[in-house]
Amino acid sequence: MRKPEADPEIEARRYGPIPDKIDPAIEALVDDIIGKVADKWTMLILEALHENGTLRYTELRRKVEGISQKMLTQTVRRMEEDGLVRRTVHPIIPPHVDYTLTPLGDSLSKAFCGVWIWAETHYDEIQQARQAFAAARSGEVHS
Length: 143
What we know:
Radius of gyration: 19 Å
Structural class: mainly alpha
């Protein structure tokens, strides 16, 4: 994943004071978005569109290896519903459909780039922890 520039508004708020009260509507939206975006396919579609710009349906399916036609359709519809993706249908025969990230989708992609950078930065530590956990588990008595 290419490393996009940080969103200055998000960065300014990230280091600002923590609010005293959390708006329940915002909390519900965050839970909903995390539930959708944490999905493997959503993340891969987000990444493919961020890296490649506008893609036709068939190109998008090729970029997101292993996704079924049904799952791709369902996922881009959810992303479109949330305003993350713009779907453009060209009225030709056969129909030609393009997908591109909206500015909102692009900003989400930038936000999740931090997860990529975190994983890259801590890769060795995570691998060591997993190996230690597996070694400890293999020595346990299983009932």
